[in-house]
Structures are given as structure tokens and as C-alpha cells.
Amino acid sequence: MLSNYTFENPWLLLGLLVVPVLAYWYFKKVNTSTASMPLPGIGSVESTRSIRSILSSMLPLLSLLALSLMIIALARPQLALTEEEVTAEGIDIMMVMDLSSSMLAQDFAPDRMTVSKQMAIEFVDKRPYDRIGLVVFAGESFTQCPLTVDHKIVKDFLSSLQCGLLEDGTAIGMGLASAVNRLKESDTKSKIVILLTDGSNNSGYIKPMTAAEIAKELGVKVYTIGVGSTGRARAPIGKRPDGTFVFGNTRVQIDEELLDEMSKQTGARYFRATTSAQLEQIYAYIDQLEKTKIEVNVYKRYEERYRPFLLAGLCLLLLQWLLGHTLLRRLP
Question: 0.85 exceeded by the pTM?
């Protein structure tokens, strides 16, 4: 790209300003010159010019173009080649997503699940140097994706999440325990869990606070996010025989006290998102809180590129000389 080019002697490019002056002087001289000896008229072909004579009059343009190329060569064009050495002290992040049927509530457009997935994907995009994994839970939990630096896989798993894949319920403790289990072997200095739910713990054989205590012992911070508007929301209240959900207005119930206590236990924070915009801000805030330490060393080297310009200029001069003494030669 041209933006990668630089010149060792850029001030010499001012010489290019002489080229249009020389061109103007030459063509003005040609147009105003007259023959030193009047010749007899030749009638209707008086103003006719052959292709040879036209080309012959254009020969000086080769000299001007050659001069331009040589001036550029003298300015020493160089291609700047940049190399970056990135050293990153990454953070291991386990994302824990609630897949209970209540995540289909429509107080977020189109529903909590869709918005939560999209915000999580955007968060992953902002963490290029971190290992990220994914745990999902409803009435039970399992690891959807172990810690990996292949963020495309993580985003693909996030995009494919659906409510109804697991037994319904909200096993917050199980979800957190699964995530902490994935982080216990990590040797990174920073390990965090981002747990998103819209309900209260009502399933599973591991209590949320027990899982939080284990997280604390292992040095894992647990950021919790409660998703859902206040009051009532249109959400699933039952299932038809064909497996589709029946919707109705239900009360939004999030155990904020429990989520807050879990986060404080591990030295992190609890957040409440009642709108899509708030959820986006929460992920952005967590992104700022947990910054990855990155060291970037930039190395630059320059490759000389004046030779093609010099060679082209010499070739044009040689071409002008050959044409002027052969095909386009003028007799005295």
C-alpha cells in the first residue's frame, strides 16, 4: 500500500515542479517556431501531419518522464516494513449462561436469551488475548466449551444456545461450580467468571454460596448479572404437547441478594440489567475492570525501492535515443 512508502530525501521531490515548466516551454517553442526558409505551398495537404511527425514531436516527453523518474529515484523511495511482537498476560474467563425457559421472556426485544447471547459475543470480540470458555445451566449444568483462544468456536457455541436443551430449572450453584472446576487448573494470575441469570436458585445439589466459597479459595472472581425488567413480563408459563411454550404475564423474580453476596464473597460485583442498553454497559464495564496486560514492541525496517524508478528512467532515455536515431530520425 502507498501508505507504507516513505522517502529518505523527500525535499528532492520539489524537483518535480520543474517538469511541467519544461513541458510548457517546449510546447510553446514548438507552436511558435517558424521555418527559416519559406517553402512552396502544397495545396490541400498543407496542414496534414503524418503519424511519424506527430510521434517525432512527442519524443521530448520521454525525456521529461525519464527526468521525473530519476528525481523520484534520487529522493530514495523506501518501503516501511513493520513487525509487532505482542506479549500478553491474558485472563482466563468462563462465561456462565442461564438456559432456563424464563430466558425467553419478552421484556427484552426479542427476548432475554437473544440479547444476552449477542452481548456475550460482543464481549468476546473485545478480548482477543484471553482464553474464554462457556458453561450453560438450567436444572443442570455442563461445559459447552472449555477454555480456548479460538474465539470463533466460543462465538459459534454462543450463537447456537437455545432454551429447552436442558431440564428446566435454575441451578445457579451447579453452573458456577462447573465453571470454577474448569478454572482450577489454570496457572494464569487472573481468573474470572461472568454468570448471567434471570431467576432464583431452585435446582441442583450444590448451593450457590458453596460454589462461591470454592471460587474464593481458588482466587476466582465471580461477576454476576441479573437480567430482567422490574414488575411483570411476558414469559413462558407452560408447555404444549408439541413442545412449544405457552406465554403469559409473570412476575420477574431475581434473587439479587444471593447474586450480590456471591460476587462480594469473591471480590467482584453484582450487576442488574433491566434493559438491553444496561446489559451492554455492564459488559463494557467488566471489560474495563478486567484489563489484559499487553506489551507491544514495534520493529521497523526499510527496503530501498529507488532502483525500479532509476532503471525505468534510463530505459526511457535509451528508448528516446534509439527512436530519435532510427524510426523517428529527422533529416537536417
Answer: no
| Half-sphere exposure in the Cβ direction for 178 (13 Å, CA) | 26
pLDDT in tens, 308-330: 888 888 888 888 788 777 766 66
Burial of 179-199, coded b for 16+ CB within 10 Å and e otherwise, reads: bbebbeebeeebbbbbbbbbb
For the chain, residues with pLDDT lower than 70 are 1-4, 30-58, 82-88, 294-300, 327-332
Domains of the chain: 2-30+49-81+299-325 (no CATH), 91-291 (3.40.50.410)
Distance separating alpha carbons of residues 270 and 196, to the nearest angstrom:
10
pLDDT digits 0-9 by tens, 2-16: 566 788 888 888 888
Beta strands, E only, the chain: 5-7, 77-89, 92-98, 131-137, 141-148, 191-197, 220-227, 232-239, 245-251, 270-273, 293-304
Residues 6 or more apart in contact with residue 129 via CB below 8 angstroms: 86, 88, 90, 292, 294
Cell 526511457 belongs to residue: 316
Cβ atoms of 173 and 204 within 8 Å: the answer is yes
d(CA 132, CA 123): 11
Length of the chain: 332
Distance CA 141, CA 134 (A): 11
